Amino acid sequence: MNNQNNQNNRKARRTALKAIGAGAIAAGLLLTAGCSKPPEKVRIAMVVKNLGNGFFDAAHTGAKEAAAQLKDVEIIYTGPTTPSAEGQIEIINSLISQKVNAIVISANDPNALVPIAKKAMQRGIKVVSFDSGLAPEGRLMQLNPSNAQLIGQKQLQMASDAIGGAGEIAILSASAQATNQNIWIGVMKDELAKPEFSKLKLVATVYGDDQSDKSYREAIGLLRSNPNLKAIIAPTTVGINAASKAVVDEKLVGKVFVTGLGLPSEMAGHVKSGAVREFAIWNPIDLGYAATYAAYQFVKGAPEAKAGGTINAGRMGTIAIDAKGEAAMAAPFVYNKENVEQFSRIF
Predict the structure, then answer these.
(1) pLDDT for 241-261, tens place per residue?
(2) Is 170 in contact with 233 (CB distance < 8 Å)?
(3) Is the dihedral of CA 254, 256, 262, 266 positive or negative?
(4) Cβ partners under 8 Å of residue 310, min gap 6
(5) What is the pTM of this model?
(6) What is the pLDDT of residue 331?
(7) Cβ atoms of residues 300 and 112 within 8 Å
């Protein structure tokens, strides 16, 4: 009888121990589940030419929209206080130390930034340039807001239309090293050789370094040095705003017209004053949005994210990448007194 009782007691203890063990395992699993970390976010740094620039603030808005849709993306928005390659190099060095997943950059210099961009890529960081490109060896892809030929042609055509197809014109650009502006200026110079623009004469090209005060001084200099000047083309949002103000301050509205690339929110007043007849720009929100999607595709190793392939850019659709690793969005859109107020409320 005692033996039977002992066996029963041993069975009961074994059953109890099994139950305790199962309970401990279950508790451990629950504890582990409760303490598990959420998936790490893809950290994409947007490095712009300079902070406080309305164009890039709008691009940042687009980047945040893309991040919200992608759900696992964190945007780090940064740039130097004044547009310089040195400032961007310092920032990229810091981002390498932070081990971000991708860098999306509008370059102040296409070549000076290549060594630091290559260093970033060697550390596994995906580098995509947008707006103002890096040289091919410094990035995986360049996202152009539009086709360079169309952008250059559009600006020259707007100037020609404003002044009746004849007269002296000048260009107020960003920095002398700005990739995109230099390409567009090259297109404009080529276009000037065509019969339809034969009565236009380019008398000067100056650089305001995308700084408001310097751009304003350069515009004043153009107006005072060229009494027969009829139009200023500024392929930069900072420059067109400064040049328009200079025309108003010099009391030359109706005698000198300003055109180029500008933000509706900054240009509505200048269109109303008559200093600007029309100007153009693509949507920087869309540009920042698409650039963020592109960087994400590269980070995730999307098979088509390569030269000669395509990227899925969310609401912007599929964007083709050419053999040189370049892609373009759309032709620039023209703003004038008919539509500028409407768009000024957006960007």
Answers:
(1) 999 999 999 999 999 999 999
(2) yes
(3) negative
(4) 304, 318, 319, 320, 321
(5) 0.80
(6) 80
(7) no
